[in-house]
Design a protein that fits this description.
The complex is a heterodimer of chains A (433) and B (141). In chain A, 31% of the residues lie in helices and 25% in strands. By secondary structure, chain A is α/β, with parallel strands linked by helices. In chain A, the strands form five sheets. Chain A has a nine-stranded mixed sheet with strand order 4-3-5-6-7-8-9-14-13. A four-stranded antiparallel sheet of chain A has the order 10-11-12-15. Classes of the chains: A alpha/beta (433), B alpha+beta (141).
């Protein structure tokens, strides 16, 4: 099923026309309403008049996550506060979160994007959807919630946690779909198996999973354990939240709602566009947002775009799997972690060498975060308690900066690899490919 | 009356203790007593050796974290209640024991003590006529 056939199956030529008109409009909006954008365009020698078609997008400067932090909380708004009706925020990397403001029209646009996703998963007005994403600052809960209401389905606003109640309501209210992070869904699957309630007492058929990277293996595992079909839903807080993209029944890439969120793939080093179909860094421009439009926002995610028409009938461009990141950011338990933050903390501690090695793994569906560090010669003690105190103190310091607590592993002097060039300082054992 | 102990930081890895023992052996350094304190990630080897300075140098040049710590060695009879009477003295003088390890053979026992107050501990024990062993004597065992 297709929610908005006239858009989702539009010819590429028509889509370009829509994108061109919308780009021109959004550029005018930010230029006239948002000081940092105007300044940056002036520095680049671009005016809104230079933007006549979607191809002119390459003339515009990029926006980065750093800009969102620098202009915290409302510096990048392009609408007056009187028009902002809601904010969401993503986990911060240096204490301050990233705040995004939405106008009424932005929320309606987001619900439209979400409706296209749910319809592609085969859901409609007769279906009950249990939303087990967290409700609150996180976009997952309220984003999925609005999408269900928009298609006329029945939403169970569960939020996460309270597993017994989740299972009881899923059964009693006849939920057909579960929207959750894949790791929480796996947790629920195990609880469901342990509950001893026969599978045929549940109506569950569809999984709506996203907000964290997951693999084909996890998909198979979830489908087997829950007896469902599992679909990816893609989104970023900065761009709006879940609904930026979705998988159709062909599950051959993630369709992007490109009439709303224009995707480009660039070479992360030069910033130049890559040839169509080639891999590079994903960049989004929000074509219709009013509250906080983002122009050429660098996601740092590495992927490719597939422009051929999909066998589901949609012409919406598809995004391949995310192959990694162009910076060294890690997402651990949903929190953005940069190795440079760990380095900065270590450099401030006189007891430790600045060298470290991070190991991330996933054990029992929970991310583990270990940091190997060396104690400076003078601070090695003959007493265990002193060494444990060093460990504890550092774990606490890192948690206060990064947002999650690491397991600190003290290792012998000079056992962490030193290298002249770019040292390999991270091992991510989680399997997302 | 003060004995130098070497303390070596060791990761909990197979063969690590043997690496230390082999290095000391090759350098002709004898170990008289040792203990390993550990938690799940790492351990600390504490040892009384025949030549602590040389042991430190050898281990350091092989990338071990080594420090020298002052401890005392109490010689006591290997009889019931002997340890208790020594500990009574320390308790009365308000001297804490950070850690200790011991080895007994025949009629005598040697107890390595890392007290909170080294000088106070030496004085308290000597005042009560307990026998402390000097470094040189200890290495002859």
């Amino acid at each position: 099923m297709i929610w908005n056939e006239s858009v989702e199956c539009m010819s590429r030529e028509e889509m370009r026309k829509v994108q061109s008109i919308r780009l021109k409009r959004v550029v005018e909006r930010v230029y006239h309403n948002c000081e940092p954008y105007r300044k940056r365009m002036q520095e680049a020698g671009v005016t809104p008049d230079d933007i006549q078609s979607i191809d002119d997008i390459v003339k515009l400067p990029f926006t980065s996550k750093k800009d969102l932090r620098d202009y915290y909380p409302f510096g990048l708004l392009s609408a007056p506060m009187s028009e902002i009706v809601r904010v969401h925020a993503s986990s911060g990397t240096t204490g301050k979160p990233i705040v995004v403001g939405y106008t009424r029209a932005d929320l309606a646009m987001w619900a439209e994007a979400g409706a296209r996703c749910l319809t592609a998963y085969g859901l409609g007005k007769n279906d009950v959807v249990q939303v087990s994403y967290g409700y609150g600052l996180f976009t997952g809960g309220l984003g999925a919630h609005a999408a269900v209401e928009n298609i006329g389905g029945t939403v169970i606003p569960m939020s996460s946690g309270n597993t017994e109640k989740q299972i009881m309501l899923m059964k009693d209210l006849g939920a057909k779909a579960l929207a959750a992070t894949p790791s929480y869904a796996l947790y629920l699957a195990e609880a469901l198996a342990n509950s001893g309630i026969p599978r045929d007492e549940f109506q569950l058929k569809v999984g709506i999973f996203g907000a964290e990277p997951w693999t084909e293996a996890m998909r198979k595992d979830l489908e087997a354990k829950l007896g469902i079909k599992a679909y990816d839903i893609y989104g970023l807080t900065e761009i709006s939240g879940p609904g930026v993209g979705f998988e159709c029944e062909c599950q051959n890439g993630t369709h992007l709602n490109e009439d709303l969120f224009y995707p480009e793939i660039i070479n992360p080093e030069t910033g130049e566009p890559v040839e169509p179909g080639k891999e590079g860094e994903l960049v989004f421009t929000t074509l219709t947002k009013e509250g906080m439009p983002l122009i050429r926002f660098r996601t740092r995610d590495l992927t490719k775009l597939i422009y051929e028409k999909c066998s589901c009938g949609r012409t919406l461009v598809r995004m391949g799997r995310i192959l990694g990141r162009s910076d060294d950011m890690l997402i651990i338990r949903g929190v953005n972690v940069f190795p440079s933050q760990v380095e900065a903390v270590l450099c401030e501690q006189e007891e430790f060498e600045p060298h470290f090695f991070i190991t991330v793994d996933r054990v029992n569906n929970t991310d583990t975060f270990e940091i190997q560090v060396e104690v400076k010669e003078a601070y090695y003690s003959d007493e265990i308690s002193k060494m444990l105190n060093l460990q504890k103190k550092l774990a606490h310091k890192i948690q206060s900066v990064v947002g999650i607590q690491p397991a600190i592993k003290l290792v012998e002097p000079r056992s962490i690899e030193r290298s002249q060039g770019k040292a390999k300082r991270v091992l991510d054992k989680r399997k997302f490919q | 009356m003060i004995v130098k102990q070497i303390s070596v930081f060791l990761e909990n890895k197979t063969g690590r203790l043997n690496d230390v023992a082999a290095l000391l052996g090759k350098s002709g350094i004898n170990m008289t007593a040792f203990s390993v304190a550990d938690n799940s990630d790492f351990g600390i080897l504490r040892a009384i050796v025949s030549d602590p300075e040389k042991a430190q140098e050898v281990l350091k040049s092989n990338k071990f974290a080594v420090s020298l710590t002052d401890v005392i060695c109490l010689h006591s009879p290997n009889t019931p209640g002997a340890l208790s009477s020594a500990l009574d003295i320390l308790a009365k003088e308000n001297i804490y024991i950070e850690y200790m390890y011991a080895f007994a053979e025949g009629v005598g026992a040697n107890i390595i003590i890392k007290p909170s107050n080294l000088q106070g501990c030496v004085e308290a024990l000597q005042k009560n006529k307990l026998e402390l062993i000097a470094a040189n004597d200890l290495y002859r065992f």
